[in-house]
Amino acid sequence: DLSSPYRGRLYGNVTIDNGATLHSGSSSSFSLEVYGNVINNGTITGFGAAFILRGTSLINNNTITSSFLRINSTATLSGPGTFSSPNIYLDTSSQVTLNSDITVSPSNVFSISSGAVFNPNLNTFTISGGELELVNGATITNSGTVRTLGTVYCDIRNGSAFNATLNVSTGSTTANDQASPYKGRLFGNVVVNIGAELKVGTSSSYSLDLYGNVTNNGSINGTTGTLLTFVSGVHTLQGTGSVTVPVVILNGGTVTMGSGHQMFSVNINAGGLFNISNNHIKFSAAVPIIQNGTINTTNSIVEYNGISLQTISTSNITYGGVIINNPSG
Predict the structure, then answer these.
(1) CB 248, CB 229: distance < 8 Å
(2) Residues 6+ apart with CB under 8 A from 142
(3) 28 burial via Cβ count (<10 Å: 0-12, 13-18, 19+)
(4) Which of 176, 213, 279, 328 is buried most, with the most CB atoms less than 10 Å from its CB?
(5) Which whole-number Å values give the CA distances from 257 to 144, 236, 274, 279, 289, in the listed order?
(6) CA triplet 12, 18, 21: central angle to 5 degrees?
(7) What span, in angstroms and rounded, lies between the C-alpha atoms of 44 and 160?
């Protein structure tokens, strides 16, 4: 629409053929709304403009690069094409379901608005770069996997629900809440691949609450004072990687080690349980274990392997075996 409000509307279905391009506009004033279904075999673009889906299906077999891609309906997304719009929004109350694996690479943000529901539907949703934002009231359902590649920031706001498995596949992913109380929450499982890292936060204000299980073959880290917290419930922690931030086990939380692991420290609150039976667990903190709950050490080995002076934790602990591997003694 070349006159105010500069919003074109197409009420039928739209197909873009291979080699063809659909432009949604040439500035931020313009937008194109499609109320039918979309099959893209070519390119959807628009410098500064928005492409808005109000229909029920978007199949992307090629490229979408419009400055804004907005989903404002109950819709399915699918296709092997690239979703490269810098800004992708699931608008308020939209219900979006994947019918295949898809990959998005927003240079700015993939944002799920309040009341919006994003359902991976047993598929893998891959985000390569940019920010994955869940505002208060946003939901990712527990069906499928969210996979991160490269440098990704997950801003998981208080009141949102990140229920799917998070797989940090490559690079560095930061997961926290950027607003007070700065406590991110992951309700699904967490998998960190070899060579990848999950960052809890960038200052002592941040913490990340875990409600599922963790397989860490890379690194879980953060700055001094950031916390990785296992809440009430039953959890496993396993893998060949390392956790370089303090781990807290809250009242009602049970964490069972599924393998040996390199850790920084653990704080077992009253009512919490840490089961390291039959495993070799290494600690590098000055005070590695604070034990006010229960620790099961049957047939285990605890190794003190820090590089500066460490204090052997003795309160409420019966060791299965201890190794001192610290150059400071």
Answers:
(1) yes
(2) 163, 164, 187, 188
(3) middle
(4) 176
(5) 24, 6, 8, 7, 15
(6) 65
(7) 31
Tell me the C-alpha distance between 205 and 227, whole Å: 9
pLDDT, tens only, 287-328: 999 999 999 999 999 999 999 999 999 999 999 999 999 987
Here the tokens at position 262 are: 């390199």
- Helices and strands of the chain, counted as H and E runs: 0, 40
User: Cα–Cα distances in Å, from 199 out to 109, 130, 157, 196, 316?
Assistant: 18, 15, 16, 10, 31
25-39, 148-162, 275-289: segment of lowest average pLDDT = 25-39
Instruction: Calculate the alpha carbon distances from 119 to 193, 244, 261, 325 in Å.
Output: 23, 32, 33, 47
Question: Using one digit for the tens of pLDDT, what is the confidence trace for 165-187?
Answer: 999 999 999 999 999 989 999 99
